[in-house]
Amino acid sequence: MAILVTGGAGYIGSHTVLALLERGHDVVVLDNLCNSSVESLERVAAITGKSPIFIEGDIRDKEILKVVFSTQDIDSVIHFAGLKAVGESVQKPLAYYENNVGGTVALLQAMQSAGVHRIVFSSSATVYGSEAPTPYVETQPRGTTSNPYGASKAMVERVLEDWVQAVPHASAVLLRYFNPIGAHESGRIGEDPQGIPNNLMPFMAQVAVGRREKLSVFGGDYPTQDGTCRRDYLHVMDLAEGHVSALSALDQRGVRAFNLGTGTPVSVLDMISAFESQTGIKIPYEIVGRRAGDLPEFWANPDKALRELGWSAKRDLNAMMADTWRWQSSNPEGY
Predict the structure, then answer these.
(1) 272 and 220 in contact (C-beta within 8 Å)?
(2) Could you list the active site residues?
(3) Could you tell me the maximum CA-CA distance found in the chain, to the nearest angstrom?
(4) Band of the pLDDT at 87, cuts 50, 70, 90?
(5) Total-model pTM
(6) Do residues 257 and 301 touch, judged by C-beta distance below 8 A?
(7) Cβ-Cβ contacts under 8 Å for 141 (sequence gap 6 or more)
(8) CB within 8 A of 216, min separation 6: which ones?
(9) pLDDT interval class at 194 (50, 70, 90)
(10) Which of 31, 108, 113, 105 is nearest to 70 (CA)?
């Protein structure tokens, strides 16, 4: 029996495929390569000595989904495929709802037709909404999301809850994670965003390697200790291992949500300082105006994941910085 990983050639997906292969799982990857590279999977195979089955296709394509489920012996699905840029979602909301929500509905229909009823969903801390008190706890309700990306994640969570309620033997795990950074310790796979990076860490790494002139820090007047936003950053390999751990929770019918984070927020300026300390490279930066939709700070209460999945983030901030730089310095232009 194999695990289908949608979006498995992307940043988090490729690291999760690696973790699955290392645990002895058979893996099938479905990815349309709109924001990823098949090179990541070739490098995963080189690292692990095992190759996932790769099928190029879109989760909205019902014919491709039929082929996947009819030709592969799929037991469970880990679902990453979707669009993920907050700013872009504001400009192109329909694309986000079509891809993220419509694509998930098509996937669930194909799963149901094939008798596959187990899914781990790549959700987000954004579902807690702007009004949620910190740290975020799974018992908090979904809140008012501030952009179409976050809204699409919250909608998919609701779709999965309704689907599990209606389908006997169905189970879903919603992994609400915070800010993944870093790369595999080999430096062979890592984050390779197309165009201008939307997130802090890849932008900072591209400044360090000479691809960008300087880092823009959005807002220096937030009610935090140094005026910059604080986020809960976790190593992408810790996150990948969280998805592997979540597979065991699918044995229990129903829907369960888990935060995946460290529980410790770090400010933007502290991130810059940590990167400079680990690499010895000075990061030129400029504090500019706030970015629409950014919250001053949020972080996870990760206790439930430890208690019920036996998972906790083990790699510290220094490892996140060192692994990011090993990846970026070895692959200055990405894949």
Answers:
(1) no
(2) 149
(3) 56
(4) confident
(5) 0.97
(6) no
(7) none
(8) 203, 285, 286, 288
(9) confident
(10) 113
